[in-house]
Amino acid sequence: MSEFWLISAPGDKENLQALERLNTVTSKSNLSYNTKFAIPDFKVGTLDSLVGLSDELGKLDTFAESLIKRMAQSVVEVMEDAKGKVQENLLANGGLKEKMKCLKIDLTSFVTHFEWDMAKYPAKQLAQIETDLKGRTAAYSTLKATLDSLNQKAKANLFTRTLSDIVNKDDFVLDSEYLVTLLVIVPTQNYIQWQKTYESLSDMVVPRSTKLIFEDKEGGLFTVTLFRKVIDDFKARAKENKFMVREFYYDEKEITREREEMTRLLSAKKQQYGPLLRWLKVNFSEAFIAWVHIKALRVFVESVLRYGLPVNFQAVLLQPQKKSSIKRLREVLNSVFKHLDEVAAASMLDAAMDIPGLQLNNQDYFPYVYFRIDLSLLD
Questions:
Q1: Are residues 8 and 114 in the same domain?
Q2: In a domain, 147, yes or no
Q3: 212-218, long-range: CB within 8 Å, 24+ apart, which pairs?
Q4: pLDDT digits 0-9 by tens, 295-329
Q5: Is-contact 321 1, C-beta < 8 A?
Q6: 202: domain CATH number?
Q7: Is 373 helix (H, G, I), strand (E, B) or coil?
Q8: 13-32 residue pLDDT tens
Q9: What pLDDT band is residue 91 in, cutting at 50, 70 and 90?
Q10: Which one of 52, 81, 164, 229 is separated from 178 by 20 to 30 angstroms, measured CA to CA?
Q11: Which domain range does residue 102 map to?
Q12: For residue 320, is it within any domain?
């Protein structure tokens, strides 16, 4: 599973023994893989400052998680042609100490080998990353949307699709006072009928002037040349025979402009792709690393608020092994640590509690400090 539970319990002898019992039970039953989670001893201010910091960290935690999920989704959108390789681009590079800085660090490895680094906890940096993300992805998204629209027009049916990529100057009689070339859509099953009848649909149709220039699964696009004065009559007779004249005027300048626009857009997208993906990879790493530091600091603050001074607690990272065992794992945790809060352990707080800073409610309050780290960023 890509889910982790970051918990803490007091660091006295009784509770360290409780943690040992937890490790024994969860290991034997294959409920979770547990490791110690190292958090440094920070300077502790007043209770009021800790309560305020707890509220601030809660908001920052939510913001950071939302940001990295948006960045992960942006990587998916940018790597539209290589979605199978998205996960290998969502890394926490540079997040571990010198011995592993040169390696590609996957998210799970970073969390399970977490080491506090003050340089990696720049809360203000997250706001700047979000601002840059909006600007960079907006420009790319606009470019991609324009290209997608043009590609959709090129994939539409013969009645509506763009023709700039399939017609050529040689397909048409141009600059003639008397003659004009029309484009006619013929259903596939009527090809033979068209070849036999198109010359007789009207007077003044140029013999042997038809040519198939494009076809899709439903039909083909044929040219036919005739005198201008019989256009209306030809259209009417063609419609009676289930042949539809496509309104189209060959304008070489417009055709060239459309082709050049597509080439320009493809080139611009290619030029933006590399720099944007590199930026996303680097800044995703920074944001993710900062997020896990926020989790660590939340554990410290909540542990001090919950267990008091002097600071003495042990943080543990649990990785549930199976989704089906989560309920059992929670029961084991509540049983091992119920002595920390008998009422909470018994009822899991039937009614919501509203104590500033402690974030106690009937959904996430337990006898022990608990925070969830979910690495399912693409779900």
A1: yes
A2: no
A3: 213/166, 213/167, 213/168, 213/171, 213/183, 214/158, 214/166, 215/188, 216/157, 216/158, 217/188, 218/157, 218/158, 218/187, 218/188
A4: 999 999 999 999 999 999 999 999 999 999 999 99
A5: yes
A6: 3.30.70.100
A7: strand
A8: 999 999 999 999 999 999 99
A9: very high
A10: 164
A11: 3-128+286-374
A12: yes
Counting every residue written for the chain, the total comes to 379
Q: For residue 14, is it within any domain?
A: yes
Instruction: Read off the amino acid at residue 242.
Output: K
pLDDT at 232 over 90: yes
Do 2 and 375 contact (CB within 8 A), yes or no? yes
Burial code (b: 16+ CB inside 10 Å, e: under 16) for 312-343 equals: ebbbbbbbbbeeebbebbbebbbebbbebbee
Instruction: Give CA–CA dist 312/304, Å, rounded.
Output: 8
Could you tell me which of 68, 148, 54 has the C-alpha nearest to residue 107?
Answer: 68
Instruction: Indicate whether 34 belongs to any domain.
Output: yes
Q: Which residues contact 149 (CB under 8 A, 6 or more apart)?
A: none
| Boundary (domain end) residue, out of 198, 224, 249 | 249
224 and 181 Cβ atoms separated by less than 8 Å: yes
Strands 219-227 and 179-187: antiparallel
Query: Which whole-number Å values give the CA distances from 112 to 299, 317, 376, in the listed order?
Result: 15, 7, 16
- Largest interatomic CA distance in the chain: 105
How does DSSP assign 133-166, residue by residue? Answer: HHHHHHHHHHHHHHHHHHHHHHHS-TTTS--TTT
CA separation (Å) from 189 to 34, 81, 239?
Answer: 68, 36, 15
**Could you give the CA distance from residue 42 to residue 311 in angstroms, rounded to a whole number?**
9
pTM above 0.85, yes or no: no
Encoded tokens for 250: 């060959």
For residue 350, pLDDT beyond 90: no
Same domain, 86 and 176: no
